[in-house]
Amino acid sequence: MPAAVLWTRRRWLLGAAAIGASSLAMAAPPPSIPIQVWKDPQCGCCQDWILHLEQNGFAPRVFDEGNNAARSRLGMPRQYGSCHTALVQGYVIEGHVPASDIRRRLQQKPGALGLAVPGMPIGSPGMDGPAYGGRRAPYQVQLVRKDGSAAVFTPYP
């Protein structure tokens, strides 16, 4: 085979390999979003919520020391309290907030303290497993402002 043909073939193969590698890179999932979570070590629904986060592209770092001190330190008012508190990219997440709402919050970046699902509503992520028999209660994800007031971020009927 003439050298020119071999050189052209080699360039074509290298180019094809580069295109294949870039296609693989494009197909790779986006990097996980780090999130810190404070919870009670005995809480099963908290662990289920953390699993929900992992399944939706978050990388939780869990602190099994309860969440009251973290909630207070991060400035989340008590009336929005639940069984776990999280911090992601400077925003406080209180309770069983769906991962999709956290992602939307991170994309929109509204000027607020964070998101909260007060209490532990049946049917919210972490409160929706087989133990609950498919039951669902309506709940709302609240956008909590820095002054402690809130507005509905997402209603779940």
CATH fold name of the largest domain, please?
Glutaredoxin
Write the CATH architecture name of the largest domain. 3-Layer(aba) Sandwich
Helix content: 25-40%
Q: Radius of gyration in whole Å, from Cα?
A: 22 Å
What does this structure look like?
- With 157 residues, this protein is an alpha/beta fold.
- The chain folds into two domains: 1-30; 32-156, Glutaredoxin (3-Layer(aba) Sandwich).
- It has helices spanning 3-27, 44-55, 68-74, 99-108; strands spanning 33-39, 58-63, 84-88, 91-95, 114-117, 139-144, 150-156.
- Strands 2-1-3-4-5-6-7 form a seven-stranded mixed β-sheet, with helices on both faces.
- It is globular, with a radius of gyration of 22 Å.
- It starts with a helix and ends with a strand.
- The relative contact order is 0.14.
